[in-house]
Amino acid sequence: MPLDYARAALLLAAFWAFCIFAHPAVRRSLLEGARCVGRYPDLWRIPALFGFGYAIFQIAAAAAFHWRMRESLPSWFATFDWEPSPAIGPLVAASLLPAAEHSAAVFTIFTATFPLSAIFALLLLFNFRGLLVAMAKALGHRLGRVTGSLALALLLLTALCAIAKPAVYLFLPEIAERAPIIAAMAVNFLSMIFELLLGIFFLTYLMLMAYAWMRGLSFHRSRLFHFAMRRTGFVLKWSLVIATLETVLVVLPLYLGVLVGAGPDFYDTCAWFSSWIGRPAVTAVALVYCPVQAILVFHNESLRQALRESTRLLRARWTSILPFLAVAIVAFLLLEAGAGYASARLGAESAAALGGRVIAAWIEALLAGWFIASWVCLYKSFSTERKEIPF
């Protein structure tokens, strides 16, 4: 490793250690989170499952592309280029936003559910462990018979699109020859709704698991599964706000650039806005209001009350929350920079670089599970006087 990379890594590691030891509450929560992950490995296994699925799907998509180009797949898998080391400044700059997004996902939306979301959509349609019936009853109870039925119909439609999305992604060139591109974009958009709901559900499930460990409660995983599904309706209040911002600022500009057809300059402008305005804005909102999701998971409050309580917590406990955010962002930054360095050296399109993403997905899952559990421990140390949900 070049000397400048070693210096940068040591500097970030020193800053990371300083943030951990700067406040005893942060250090205590991280230690408790590590013990929680050791007791309940699902906290990292579930993120690892989705991370592995996405990494392997990327390899399959790249293999399909090279197969269309009539290249030899065995030679593609066995060949890589050892490129010169990239400049450290652009590498760190390119890794900063993904690291912040990974950190925001710990607090708000556990997002990386594609393509395994297709399997969970199938399980939902086949009423696995009574989830579909339970969800239909919950929607009817909360929204009324008519509105609940419409919401259930929309859910089933998004599940069908989630099942179709992997095939649409892999065979988009063939599909584009026989169907308008807007049909594929509609499938992608509706599938994103199901992926959002699935991500919110699993984040709620993992947070409740960490909460049960911290309180010393015994539970059965299937019952916790159903309980997390019911709590997801409360968590949606904030997650839908983040999802709406992401749709308006990130997704729609890209769709607009594709559909308007005003030339490559217009598409580049839309892509620039999505990447450098939309994504940072959504990530900043999620990080600034990081306590809102936990408030809605553990307390029966309205969104306005949750936002008010989040503001109060940030004012009163910012000396603990900011170091915790810094610890999460720096950890993901080191991971992203390391993965970006390996990808640049091996060649971004090589099978070796894509295979390295599988290793990065495992490390990312460990970090995600650790920070989710640690955040629950830190948050509950702040809200001991508040009335909690019956568990």
Q: Which segments are poorly predicted (pLDDT under 50) over 5 or more consecutive residues?
A: none
Largest sheet: none
How confident is the prediction overall: mean pLDDT? 84
SS-derived structural category: mainly alpha
Give a description of the structure.
The protein has one domain. 83% of the residues lie in helices and 0% in strands. It has helices at 3-22, 24-39, 42-68, 73-78, 88-107, 117-125, 131-143, 145-170, 172-176, 181-215, 221-260, 264-288, 291-298, 303-346, 351-382. The chain starts with a helix and ends in a 9-residue tail after the last helix.
Outline the secondary-structure elements:
Layout: H1 3-22, H2 24-39, H3 42-68, H4 73-78, H5 88-107, H6 117-125, H7 131-143, H8 145-170, H9 172-176, H10 181-215, H11 221-260, H12 264-288, H13 291-298, H14 303-346, H15 351-382
Helix pairs in contact: 1-2, 1-14, 2-15, 3-15, 5-12, 5-14, 5-15, 6-8, 7-8, 8-10, 10-11, 10-15, 11-12, 11-13, 13-14, 14-15
Can you summarize this structure?
This protein is mainly α. Helices cover 83% and strands 0% of the residues.
Key descriptive features of the protein:
about 400 residues; mainly alpha
